[in-house]
Specification:
alpha+beta; 5-stranded mixed sheet; signal; L,D-transpeptidase; LD_TPept_cat_dom
Length: 346
Amino acid sequence: MCVVGKLAVCLTVAGGFLAGTNMVCAQGMVRQPAGHASHASAGTQTATQPGTPPAGVDDRALDPAFAGVTGATPPSSSVNGSPPVLGEDAARQEAWALTLAFRREVPVAVSVSSADKAAWVALARQQLEQAGYVLDRPQVLVVVDRNPKVQRLCLILAIPGSADWQVIGSAKVSTGTTGRQYYYITPTGVFPNSATRLGYRALGTKNENGIMGNGTTGMRVWDFGWQWAEKGWLPNRDKVQIRLEMHATDPVYLEQRLGHTASEGCIRIPSSLNVFIDRHGLLDTEYEQRATVDRRFAALLRKDRVASPIAGLLVVVVDTAGQVIPPAAAAFKNEVTPHRQKPSVG
């Protein structure tokens, strides 16, 4: 795995290539744009700003199957690249259609109890409020529970103004582990798949142990930028910045271990779930808009995708360990607001 300033950053394995707006990783080497620090100085927790796209990036490395794309036609579910706004009934019908598709396309799906749903919805609401996000349309949230005893991902339809959010499907994952040097605890929070960064696709390359760290060729890697994370091997849990990503893992050796903490800080998911989120564009609302004017984003998105009208862009990491879940929070105010608001200060 690539290391930046002795930080174990979840990037493509040796021989892979990252084409993004912040850094390039090729043949085990890391290059960063000028002025972009690999980690912040001690005691400073100012968010790192996105860098300038590296010159000479060959977008064919994103996925050989998508090479040569010069433009993109938005899927039929969107208008001019902008996500549609469905009413509650239509959104719930679409969520049910996705649930049926999830059962067919994700064979490793696991059931969700009413207690799990209540906990994840309550904590996701808390994270959204703390981060200052106001949902302005019904949309899918990717909720990840990093609790070492849980290690689950759940796709949830979040509906502004409604207390009854709807579960679409769930599967086991692996987040950051403790007790190993350069392994970090996956941070909680709200992480958008922003078009200020360009994700990439796995090339299926193997490391020195014969492991495909990001999964087989073509698996999607979602890049959530530099995020503060605790050092899992230190008792004082000192924090540094890691590159937070969500990606598949080796289908032979590591996928069977999902459900236990194991990663260096990123979110490992099953291959079938990776394809499901990718094919239905569940985190790609900003990418769809950018793809109409930027061929790099058009090249990254699947040609056979059918973007859902309730797609979103947010991964919400929660932790149910030691939590006393309060009664369901009051529904968010159903009002026209910007996509994101700054948290109030006072």
